[in-house]
Every structure is written in C-alpha cells, then in structure tokens.
Amino acid sequence: MPKSTFDSAAIRNQFPSLKRKHNGHPMVFLDGPGGTQVPKSVVDAMVNYYSTSNANSHGAFVTAMETDDTIHGMREAMAAYLNAEGPECISIGQNMTTLNFSLARAMARILQPGDEVLITKLDHEANRGPWLTLREAGIDVREVNLLPNGTLDYDDFKEKINEHTRLVAMGMSSNCIGTVNDFKLARKLTYEYNAWLLLDAVHYAPHFAIDVQDIGCDFLLCSAYKFYGPHVGLLYAKPGTLDRIPTDRLRVAGQAAPESIETGTLNHAAIAGVKAAVDFIATFGKGKTLRDKITSAFDTIGKHEFELASYLYKKIKVLPGVTIVGQDFSKTTRTPTVSFTLKGKTPLQVCEHLAKKNICAWDGHFYAIRAIESLGLLEKGGVTRLGISIYNTKAEMDLVIAEIKKLTV
Ligand SMILES: Cc1ncc(COP(=O)(O)O)c(C=O)c1O
User: Fold this and answer.
1) Is 8-39+290-407 CATH 3.90.1150.10?
2) Do 358 and 26 touch, CB atoms closer than 8 A?
3) β strands within 343-398, DSSP E
4) What are phi and psi of 317, to 5 degrees?
5) Are 204 and 180 in contact (CB under 8 A)?
C-alpha cells in the first residue's frame, strides 16, 4: 500500500510490468493515454475470478451467484468513482467505442430528420464516428470548431447549438493534446435547449475526480484500461435516460438499465479487474467512504502528475525546433499529456528514437484525427505524445528530455 506521503518506489513496486527489462534496460511507460500499466492487485482479481468463480451469470449455484456479485460489486465501485446515483446507472461494454455505437444506433430510432446533434473537431473518432452515422437517417450532425491554440471555439458552439439540437456529444479532455473542455458551459447550453449531454471521459477519468451529478450530464463514457484496469468500456446513464432509448436487445436479456445496452456475456474476469482498479486508485486517498477516498486520491494523483508534466513541458518547450501543440501548463487546467513536434524529424522518427531507450511513446493522431487535421498536422505525421501516469518519475522525465535533446539540431 502506498504511504500517505507520495512514495514513488512503493507505488512502482505494485506494477509487475515496471520490473520488466528489455535489452537489459528498464522500461519507461509514457504511453498512458493509450492505456496504462496494471497493478498486481488488478491482475490478482482477474486470476482469482478464473480460479474460483468462473461461470455465467444469473444461475442458482454458487459460482453463478459469485459472478453476479462480481458484476454488481463493480457497478457499485464505478458508481462511487463517478458519483453516480447508484449501480444501476453503470452499464458495461467491450470498450467505449462499442458502447457509443450502440447508443447512436438506438438514438437513430428516436431522432427525426431535422433534429440536430452537435459534436466537436477536438474529439476522438469514438465520439464522432457513431454520431456521424446519424446523417444517414437525415439528422444534421454539426461540428464545433477547434481554435489554433487547441481549445474549442465556444462562440462557434453557441452559434451551432439551437432548438433543434437533441444531443451534444463532447469530450471532457483531449487524448491528443490534453485540453480540458468547458463541459460546465456545455451543460448550461444543453439545458437551455433541452438537449442531452454526452461526455467522453476516457482521457479525463484517469486524472481527475468526476462527479456526474454535479456536472449534470445525461451520459458519460470511460474505459478502465486508461485508469490501471483491464479492457472494459463503461457507460454512466442518468436514471431514466437509458430506459427511454430503444437499444438492440434480445427478448431474453435485461430490458431495463443498466443491462438494456449490454449484449451477450460480459467479460467477467475483467469486470473483477475494474473493481480492483477503482480500489487501487482509492488507496491514494483518505476518507470514510470509497467515494471520499477517490476524490481525495485524485488530489494526490493530480499533484504528482501535474508536477512531472509541467517539468517535462518547461524543459522540452525551450529545446531548439520543438513546438508544443496545445495549451501551456501554468494557467490552465489540462491533463498531464505533453504533445509536440520537432523540426527535421517526424513524430514517428522521434518515437523510434525513444523506443531504442525503451521509452514507450505514441506518434500520430491517436484517432483524434479531426483535431490533428484541423491543426494542419495530419500530413506531417501528427505529434509525439508523452503521457504521465501515477507510476512515472522525475528520473524518467530527465531521460526523455535528454533523448529528445539529442535529436535537436
Ligand atoms: C478520448 C478517447 N475517447 C475514446 C476512446 C476510445 O476508447 P475505447 O478504446 O475504449 O473504445 C479513446 C481511446 O484512446 C480515447 O482516448
């Protein structure tokens, strides 16, 4: 267990993959926005499920009942994670993209030609593609513009939302350049026009505490593999909302929320792992309830991640030929994700160089292709992205800074 003060060694010790060496050297994982490493407690929970309770759900025998408990326990943990009204607000899917496609397919059945949906140019395709399919049903899908500084154009947002808007689908933060969006303003505007607000929290949920009731969103999606868990997608739906949507469902399956959007047998072992991931995060916080621990944990996690990311940002920013893409770290709330381009090298070449030192970093558009395109970087190979997670250290930052420095001219 980590101590109350930040004990980096103790935290790192919990991650089996951090002990791995490749070509005799340790690994440096700066690929968190693509998926974080997993602590042993999460691995153990999955192994334990298969070792003791493996069964299908809703049976009269012990392992089936334990499976039901595993699923319910995870819904309760995620309800605490998001401050949802209860476990019945948490639906489970293969990943965020699949859940969002299911939602869009269902909404296509209730929206009418002439209705409008508002998406953004900053979002990951997983929160654009499903909604763009609604154009086939005569729905007008409009896009909020992206400004060159990497923030959404809220004047454009105000112009494009109107009395025909039925849904606004936007990210809480950009997996590509770390911008945190003004989702409270989005909520205010969607209330004014009586539209639904759906938030993509995939890149936000690993870094900040989320309170769905405080935000007042109707839907929120996230993915456990971005917050130290296994590959499972999660949907929060405000009480009453999912029940109003005609999702694809079998006659024999649950007809009400949260099951009504879940198709087939779920990944039970991974579900056990998601609960363990929430419990892992809670160990960084204090308080009586799981929810208290989670909110307090994000103060600790956020402080550590921000310190490292702002240090990395300041050191990289001044290197010759480096252009940071996105907002600076001093005044704004943003995620600990540093994206940049380097003169004379493509993002892929930068990542290939870093990989020789076992530094795992992503290049490209990370499926936020519209954002990279709008910023004029698509033809240039996008950006190099360095994402900070709870297990990263200052020594790792110094290593990556030194390696990028070697590439500068
Ligand atoms: C912001 C954002 N939204 C959505 C997704 C898609 O999530 P999933 O892989 O669970 O479908 C990702 C994945 O990288 C993401 O970063």
Assistant:
1) yes
2) yes
3) 359-360, 362-364, 383-387
4) -55, -35
5) yes
Domain residue extents for the chain:
8-39+290-407, 44-282
44-282 under CATH 3.40.640.10, yes or no: yes
Of the chain, the percentage scoring pLDDT greater than 90 comes to 97
What φ, ψ does residue 88 adopt, rounded to 5°? -70, -5
The answer, yes or no, to whether any atom of ligand 1 lies below 6 A from the CB of 121, is: no
User: What pLDDT digit, counting tens, does each position of 118-143 carry?
Assistant: 999 999 999 999 999 999 999 999 99
Query: Per-residue pLDDT averaged across 19-48, rounded?
Result: 97
Per the DSSP assignment, residues forming a β-bridge with 383 are 364
Q: Is the pLDDT of residue 1 over 50?
A: no
Count of alpha carbons within 13 Å of 8, Cβ hemisphere only?
11
- Looking at residue 164, its amino acid is H
Whether 368 contacts 174, CB under 8 Å: yes
Residue 9's Cβ-count burial label (10 Å; 0-12, 13-18, 19+) is: exposed
Q: Atom 12 in ligand 1: which residue has the minimum CA distance?
A: 202
| Unique residue bearing structure tokens 């621990």 | 293
Summarised one tens digit per residue, pLDDT across range 57-79 is: 999 999 999 999 999 999 999 99
How far, in Å, are 63, 148, 389 from residue 275 at the CA level? 18, 39, 19
Q: What's the confidence (pLDDT) of residue 2?
A: 47
Vertex 245 angle, CA 244 and 250, to 5°: 115
Overall residue count recorded for the chain in this entry: 409
Distance (Å, rounded) from C-alpha 408 to C-alpha 18? 29
Mean pLDDT of 314-332: 91
Tokens of 104: 């869009």
Judge whether 8-39+290-407 and 44-282 match in fold.
no
* Residue to substitute in 124, 181, 365, 389 for testing ligand 1 pocket (most ligand atoms within 8 angstroms of CB): 124
User: Which ligand 1 atom is at minimum distance from the Cα of 233?
Assistant: 10
**How many other C-beta atoms can be found within 10 angstroms of the C-beta atom of residue 137?**
14
